[in-house]
Each structure stands twice: as structure tokens, then as C-alpha cells.
Specification:
Blueprint lengths: L9 E3 L5 E2 L2 E7 L7 E8 L4 E2 L2 E2 L4 E8 L1 E5 L5 E3 L4 E4 L5 E5 L5 E8 L8 E2 L34 E9 L8 E3 L3 E14 L5 E3 L4 E4 L5 E19 L7 E3 L3
Antiparallel strand pairs: 1-3, 2-5, 3-4, 4-12, 6-13, 7-10, 7-12, 8-9, 8-11, 14-19, 15-20, 16-17, 16-18, 16-19
């Protein structure tokens, strides 16, 4: 048995096999009687292999992101983390990321004894992935937060809040937890005693109940965000300024 704690160096995939940018990390190479090779391949958005085929086939296991796979003569199919693709020996196919997301998969294949390698052909046409059926609904988990103690919630109040450019709310606390998501603009954000960060569109934040918020300062573009307040019996969401 051999345990390798640090994978081999990652190398850029050559243009002869990939359109766009991709990186390959060798995880296992044939040793002794085994002819199994395992690589981790990371595709940048829009990157994909050329049409190619493997003498003994290939297995792909998606670990991150979203991508496509397509066999010659069939439709492109969307693949996500956990999906497994088994490519038949000699089957022409391609795989890669969608135009807007990256994708990482493990590539597992058995290498022939005679040393025959995969055969690569022409690049994938830009129109080919469009044959994949569009997903009518997508769901992405952006925040999962366990509250420090059970809390009775009567209702949830959702507010859209806009802060003018270069204005800060000052040191303050809320009387309940706050969950937020930045819509436009940006803000410098800091819970008292913790490092500050810059929140931009798509970023989410969580303010524990009674946490001292040192900074929520809009930058020169201002900031608009959605704030969700879980409200308990007899409560009204409130902000209490604490001064400097």
C-alpha cells in the first residue's frame, strides 16, 4: 500500500486536446500489473475537450461545478456533482464545462497493454452544447446557518435596504439574527473583533443576535441588499446604534 498525501503538480492541458483553459492533476498512474490511470481535470468556464475516443473506454465522476458530455450522434447532456459517465471503448465523445460555470471531474481509464493512447479529432462546435435541454429550475444553496440556540419565530420580515454611497451605519446591534444578500453595489462589512470584508452582488452574510456590527459601510457605488429578519412573539426588528 502506498499513501500519497500531496497530489502531483497540476499542469495545464495542452491545446491539442482542450479548447479553452483546463488543468490536469495526476492522482494515480499504472504500476505493476495495474493499468489504471486516474486524473483530476478542472475546466474553466467554456473549456471542453476536443472530440476524442479511448481504446478501452473511460469513466468520469463529476466532483464540482456543472458541465456537458456528448457522444457522437447524441444530444449534449448536463452533468453535475455526483454524476458518473461511462464512455464505451472507441466511442467518440467530448466533455467540459458550461459557458458560465467551471467543472471538475475525475477521469478514470484503463490503458491498453500495447501503449495505444486516446485519439483526438476536431474541436467541438460552439453550437453543439445548445442541444442540451435547459433546466426549468435550478437551486443553489448560498447560506446554511445553525442558530446558537432554539428560537421561536412567529413570522419573517424581508426588507430591501439601500445605503447611499460612502455612508456607514456605524457601530450597532440588532435584537435578532439577520440574514442578508447583496443585490447591487458593495459595502465594507465587519463584525466587531473579526476581520473586515467587502460584500459584492451575490454575497450573503449572517449577523448573530446581539452581535456588535462594527462596519456596514457603503462604498462609492452605494449598496442595496435584501435583509431577512426572523421575528419572535411580540418582537419588532430593530437596530440600536452604539456610538463609537
Amino acid at each position: 500500500m502506498h499513501v500519497r498525501h500531496v497530489p502531483s503538480a497540476t499542469t495545464a492541458a495542452p491545446a491539442e486536446v482542450i479548447t479553452g483553459s483546463a488543468w490536469v492533476t495526476s492522482l494515480a498512474v499504472p504500476e505493476g500489473p495495474s493499468r489504471t490511470q486516474v486524473d483530476r481535470v478542472q475546466f474553466a468556464p467554456g473549456a471542453r475537450t476536443r472530440w476524442h475516443r479511448h481504446p478501452l473506454g473511460q469513466v468520469l465522476v463529476v466532483t464540482e461545478g456543472t458541465g456537458y458530455v456528448q457522444r457522437r450522434g447524441g444530444p449534449a447532456q448536463l452533468i453535475r456533482p455526483g454524476d458518473t459517465v461511462r464512455v464505451a471503448p472507441g466511442e467518440w465523445h467530448w466533455h467540459g464545462a458550461t459557458d458560465t460555470t467551471s467543472m471538475t471531474h475525475l477521469a478514470i481509464e484503463e490503458l491498453p497493454e500495447d501503449g495505444t493512447t486516446a485519439e483526438f479529432a476536431e474541436p467541438v462546435s460552439a453550437a453543439e452544447p445548445e442541444t442540451a435541454p435547459a433546466e426549468p429550475v435550478t437551486r443553489t444553496l448560498v447560506l446554511e446557518q445553525r442558530l446558537p440556540q432554539p428560537r421561536v419565530v412567529d413570522y419573517v420580515e424581508l426588507r430591501r435596504i439601500t445605503i447611499a454611497p460612502d455612508f456607514g451605519t456605524g457601530l450597532h446591534v440588532h435584537n435578532g439574527p439577520v440574514f442578508g444578500s447583496i443585490e447591487t453595489g458593495s459595502a465594507v462589512y465587519q463584525i466587531d473583533g473579526e476581520p473586515e470584508s467587502v460584500l459584492t452582488p451575490g454575497d450573503v452574510f449572517y449577523e448573530p443576535e446581539a452581535a456588535r456590527i462594527a462596519r456596514f459601510d457603503a462604498q462609492e457605488d452605494g449598496v442595496t441588499f435584501l435583509a431577512c429578519f426572523p421575528v419572535g412573539p411580540g418582537e419588532t426588528p430593530s437596530l440600536t446604534p452604539l456610538g463609537s
